[in-house]
Design brief:
It contains 7 helices and 2 strands, in the order H-H-H-H-H-H-H-E-E. The chain is an all-alpha fold and 169 residues long. It folds into 2 domains: 86 residues, no CATH class; 48 residues, no CATH class. It has a two-stranded antiparallel sheet. The chain is globular, with a radius of gyration of 17 Å. It starts with 8 loop residues before the first helix and ends with a strand.
Length: 169
C-alpha cells in the first residue's frame, strides 16, 4: 500500500520539493535506461547533456566511444525517447540549467566532461587526483568521487576523492 495516501497533500508536496532541491539533476527513473547503460558505465542522468547530444549518441551505438553498444530498435527508441525527454534543455534542475548556459546553441558535446560547465567545475583538480589516480582515471567516472552521483546529487559536500579524501574547496 502506498503510504503517501495517508499523508496530507501539503506534506507529500514538501517531500517532493525537498527531494528536488537535494538533487542537482533528475535521478534516472527509467529501468531500461538504467539497466542497459549501467551494464558498462554509470547510467548518466540525461540532464547532464542536451537532447541533441543524446540523439547523436543514441544514433551511433555501433561505435559508442570505441565499443559496440547496439540495441534492438525498440529498446534504442525507448532509451532515446527517455534521454531526450529528460535532457538538460528540458530540465528544471539547477545543474542541468547551468550546463545549458555553458553551451552555445551549436554545441553538441558527446561527453559530459567536454561541457564548459563540467570543465570549469573540475579546473582545480590535477592529474594526480584524476588521470593518474587508479581509482578514478577519468572525469567520466563521476561516481568515483561524487558519492551520491547515482541519485543526481553532485554537491561539493559529497565529494570524496579516492586516496585524497573529502574535497575541501
Amino acid at each position: 500500500m502506498n503510504n503517501y495516501r495517508l499523508l496530507p497533500v501539503y506534506v507529500v508536496a514538501f517531500f517532493s520539493l525537498t527531494a528536488h532541491a537535494a538533487s542537482d539533476v533528475a535521478p534516472v527513473s527509467n529501468i531500461l535506461y538504467k539497466n542497459d547503460c549501467s551494464a558498462c558505465h554509470m547510467a548518466y542522468q540525461p540532464g547532464l547533456l542536451p537532447a541533441r547530444s543524446w540523439q547523436k549518441i543514441m544514433n551511433n551505438l555501433a561505435d559508442h566511444f570505441g565499443e559496440n553498444a547496439e540495441l534492438d530498435d525498440t529498446d534504442r527508441k525507448a532509451i532515446m525517447d527517455y534521454a531526450m525527454q529528460n535532457a538538460a534543455d528540458t530540465s528544471s534542475f539547477k545543474r542541468s540549467k547551468s550546463i545549458m548556459k555553458s553551451l552555445s546553441s551549436n554545441d553538441t558535446p558527446l561527453r559530459i566532461s567536454e561541457t564548459k560547465y563540467i570543465k570549469r567545475k573540475h579546473r582545480e583538480l590535477s592529474n594526480k587526483h584524476v588521470k593518474d589516480n587508479p581509482k578514478v582515471k577519468s572525469l567520466s567516472r563521476c561516481e568515483a568521487c561524487h558519492t551520491k552521483a547515482d541519485t543526481g546529487s553532485y554537491s561539493e559536500r559529497e565529494i570524496n576523492i579516492p586516496g585524497f579524501g573529502r574535497w575541501d574547496d
